[in-house]
Specification:
5-stranded mixed sheet; 7-stranded mixed sheet; 7 helices; alpha+beta; D-Maltodextrin-Binding Protein, domain 2; Fructose-1,6-Bisphosphatase, Chain A, domain 1; 267 residues
């Protein structure tokens, strides 16, 4: 494989180009063309067009790599593929449709055991987050690090709301009830990758969600880990977070405290 740093620079350029396309489309977006994948889960022609652009360029950057993409505009990876791109062309589609921040372009490269690099471009704030394994995390070219907060009572926590409302509702209500009034505040911004990047940059201190997908976490997880943070499933292991089924991410200092709250909240 080519040098990871060189690949990262090309992916950053691609993310900026894709973000520019999204921002331009938002100026004359036709909401009547929005499609529904299933209940309350939407896709637009912008998602698909952006993914096609990203996939075409990634095939040039690393021809041997396979793909896992949200909109499945290309053949998905086979088990024999060692390297593959994980792509969410527009994370936060509902925000985009309603002209609300944030929404992001998300690209990760991984092999069967590790995420090698991650790039997330938050379009509305023009924030380019990037990382490569062992090389640190960056926001618009400047190093970033998670917060050093150690007291959950002072923490700003984000809880995501996945489309599987029936599977998540009781846990979410329990967790919100436990944390409300016992942390600095609770937020949800509608972009899982955006929340992981905000955590990496020290803007928030913890994030929890369930029932999302690999493309919702791969790039942001790489950036978070390189920024000194921690990510796991609800049992504190690696078993389920990479699939997106259970994700708890923190600055590391608060991880055990969040796991304790999660155990109490589980139905």
């Amino acid at each position: 494989m080519r040098d990871v740093q060189g690949i990262l620079e090309e992916v950053k350029e691609l993310a900026l180009k894709a973000g520019s396309f999204i921002a331009d489309q938002r100026q004359h977006f036709d909401v009547s063309k929005v499609e529904s994948k299933h209940s309350h889960d939407y896709v637009s022609y912008v998602d698909k067009g952006c993914e096609e652009m990203i996939v075409a360029r990634l095939k040039e950057i690393l021809p041997e790599a396979g793909f896992i993409t949200e909109e499945k505009t290309t053949e998905q990876k086979e088990e024999s593929t060692n390297l593959f791109w994980v792509v969410d062309p527009l994370d936060g589609t509902t925000n985009f449709i309603h002209d609300l921040a944030p929404y992001c372009v998300c690209i990760a490269l991984r092999n069967k055991t590790d995420i090698l690099l991650g790039v997330v471009y938050e379009v509305t704030r023009q924030e380019l987050y990037s990382a490569a394994k062992g090389m640190g995390a960056y926001l618009n070219g400047k190093p970033i690090h998670v917060s050093r907060l150690t007291d959950l009572d002072q923490a700003l926590v984000m809880i995501g709301y996945p489309y599987n409302a029936e599977g998540f509702r009781q846990f979410c209500l329990n967790l919100t009830g436990q944390l409300y009034g016992h942390c600095a505040s609770i937020r949800s911004n509608g972009s899982a990758e955006g929340e992981l990047c905000y955590l990496a940059a020290g803007k928030i201190d913890a994030y929890v969600e369930s029932f999302i997908q690999p493309w919702d976490v791969a790039a942001g997880a790489c950036i978070l880990l390189e920024a000194g943070g921690k990510i796991s499933d609800y049992d504190g292991t690696d078993e389920q977070w990479e699939s997106g089924r259970q994700v708890v991410a923190t600055n590391g200092w608060l991880h055990e405290a969040m796991l304790q709250e999660i155990q109490k909240a589980r139905p």
